[in-house]
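Onboarding guide, step 5: your first structure request.
Type a short instruction followed by the sequence, for example:

Predict the 3D structure of this protein.
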Amino acid sequence: MPQKSRLGQNFLIDVQAAQRIVAALGDVADRTVVEIGPGRGAITNALAARAGHVLAIELDRDLAAELRGRFAPDRVAVIEQDVLEFDFAAASAQAGGQLRVGGNLPYYITSPILLHLARSHAALESAVLMVQREVADRVTASPGSRDYGLLSATVQMYGPVEQLFTLPPSAFSPPPKVHSTVFRWRFSPRFAELGVEETGFQRFLRQVFAQKRKTLANNLRVAGVTQADASAALAQAGIDSRARAEALSLDSLAALWLILNSQ
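The system replies with structure tokens like these:
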């Protein structure tokens, strides 16, 4: 079956890697696992042997038909749909509990998928995802590092992330031009812990990370905060007026948001 480049299809062919991804999900014998982009079924095959039930979300009509022919429907339900339109909350309700998620994410929509998972956090327990190595570096980066930015902060507000292992291009067919990294994301949102409101704080993060070369103070002014208010809030939060957002922890950014919202 030909690969469709517009769908970002690089199929995993490393059987051992597929087993490692499924093992990283933990004991799923009595759980429903959602697989994003099963493709030719390398991870699906491992999941079918271990999970209570698998929901395989595949956009490609031909691949979906092939998967349906390979797996028993009581073990693997193949859903031909764009994952960005998949209702994780409804699937969780039907499963009677939180879902676990696995998959090899298409490179071209990795960030939108991660944001969709973040919005669906209440329905999810954990995810083990394979992405382009550079994206994994950004997602798991620490404040102050070169890779830390809006994606890092956004994902980490919804729970801790950790890199598990990296695969070379030869683990895929056709081989991509980049390495791929598997990371685990445990959903445990920090909004209540930090005392911030979800929608407002996410908007604030987008504002302070808007232009990476600008200081936090400059990004705040672009967002409509007066210079006087920005300076006063930064001083009260104990943040250097020349600091950039990527140098600050989520705790510090939450403290600043709370101060700004009390002015």
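Each response can be followed by summary notes, for example: The domain at 5-189 is CATH 3.40.50.150 (Rossmann fold).
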